[in-house]
Design goal:
heterodimer, A: about 200 residues, mainly alpha, B: about 180 residues, 9 helices, about 80% helix
Chain lengths: ~200, ~180
Amino acid sequence: MINVIWISLLLIGIAVGAATGNMEGITRGILRGAENGVSVSLGLISILVFWLGIMKIAEDAGLVQMLSKLLRPLARFLYPSVPPDHPAMGSILANMSANILGLGNAATPLGLKAMQQLQELNPEPHRASDAMCTLLAINTASLTIIPATVIAIRMQYDAKSPTDIVGATIVATFLGTLTAIVLDRFFRARERRKRGIP
Amino acid sequence: MMEWTNLLSEWALPVVISSILVIGHFRKVPVYETFILGAKEGFPTTVRIIPHLVAMMVAVSVFRESGALDLLLKGLRPVFDTLHIPSEIVPMALLRPISGTGSLSIMTDIFQTYGPDSVLGKIASVMQGSSDTTLYVLTVYFGSVGIRNSRYAVKVGLLSDLAAAAFSVLVVYWMFGV
């Protein structure tokens, strides 16, 4: 799927550029895209280094384990394939908590850590495991309760009440995340049926 | 509501960090050394992500700069019109999963043109806040561990983005009674 998306974006873009005589747009697109890719990755370094450091302290202090005990019932339902005492469970829950609190910058390193620990449980290292797909579904749906960036921009544009969209955002996010979880389960079941796994 | 949410988003980070440090210290964790040990993993992880992000961002950027995105939006306009989705919001819904800064700039555009308190402004705000840049999350998360076969994850991500966009429109119509 990602292969199809990638090649379609590129080839359709180049074809349209060729048809409309906009070849310099393509060159510009390639240069800008590559530059953005590197600068976004490098931009992650600072926050990633910091949060992985803080997380290690939380882990050694037993805080991650405490959190996972608290949210265990929910996590067991969402990630049946991850042993409840595995460190991956702690990172998954920390990632979830950071998302819910709207700490987007903190959520990414925690999610990456969870991914790496899930990879240890993955029997096929190049194929995403069930739990990885669920982690991704939940992260792409964004659980955020406080859309801090949106509120900040609304303030800049003198909204009467910059935060009046918070309630609506929570409802939309909740429904979107629920959809993601349902779709995740649906496609997993379908794949199992196709491969003949009970 | 406003003070409450502002307070929470301002205080969350400092409170979380200081609690971790204080509890760690009292539980006899050598906090500084432990921090360094964990932080060391940050750099290699970032470097592993670079090729994935460059690949995806070049594709998205070529698609946009070539004019293909504009063509697609023009073509889809009648479809969204019949679904009563305001056509001004369509580019944002389509861009949201592929470019976070792209959809953010459309949101600011809508604020500038129609005002943040307009229905469009509200829909745009909810849309931006209620979903994430799926393609970016996917690339970074799977890229960091070298997953090549993402199975149904892309499908799930994009379909739930579509659902979140539709919910944003519906919820704003419902809550603000327009």
